[in-house]
Amino acid sequence: MNTASAATHESKASLKSYAAPTVFVVDGDVTVRESLELLIQSAGWQPESFACAQDFLSHRRVMAPSCLVLDVTLPDLNGLELQRRVADRIEMPLIFITAYADVPTTVQAMKAGAVEFLARPFSDEVLLSSIRDAIERSHAALHREAQIQPLRIRYASLSRREREVMELVVSGQLNKEVGGELGISEITVLAHRGKVMRKMAADSLADLVRMAARLRGTPAPKT
Asked: 3.40.50.1460, 3.40.50.2000, 3.90.550.10, 3.40.50.2300: which CATH number matches 13-147?
């Protein structure tokens, strides 16, 4: 089994290991954790709770539908620092809960990507509604990731020079202009361009431009 196949197999195995979306809870108060676990279970989700940020960070990451409910004030790292540590986990939207809300903290958390910032007291239904929204976002993020992953694998197979040629070609430069910028002949550009098209499985230049846009996370130009 090659590396790409192994990664895909591992990802599928991780997804299968979770029968329901997981709601991670990080809160230093054991009473709060136990209360949230019961609430989350009652809604049909799988709760996993942690007493501090480091315990959560030690937990194995699983690419499956999930969200993170956390307090701003934690025994070790605070909630905002934990948010920064897991900023790359696109599959896990964050919901802050706290008894000590202030405007600067709320703004900082929301600007960093939190889907909700709830100040106690709040109703169970308000929290459950926020979790539902977060889980929907998680599903959407995982779907986008599954679509883009094959493109990333193909792009990783390109050599450094092929990536340079691809970047300049999709920016609209002619072969002669690409050669001039890279200091290579037009014939060499054509050879690299052909390899790029084959490795990326692109049927046309327009197709390659769309692929590049998706890899950058930008909307593809209309054709």
From this structure: 3.40.50.2300
- The answer to whether domain 157-216 has CATH 1.10.10.10 is yes
**3-state SS of 18-38?**
CCCCEEEEECCCHHHHHHHHH
Q: What pLDDT shows up at residue 105?
A: 87
Give the torsion through C-alpha atoms of 115, 120, 126, 130, to 10 deg: 20
Determine the angle formed by the axes of helices 124-156 and 30-42, rounding to 10 degrees. 80
Residue appearing with tokens 């480091």? 54
Residue 89: CB partners within 8 Å, gap ≥ 6? 61
219 DSSP assignment: P
For residue range 50-108, list pLDDT tens digits in order.
999 999 999 999 889 999 999 998 988 899 999 999 999 989 999 999 987 788 888 98
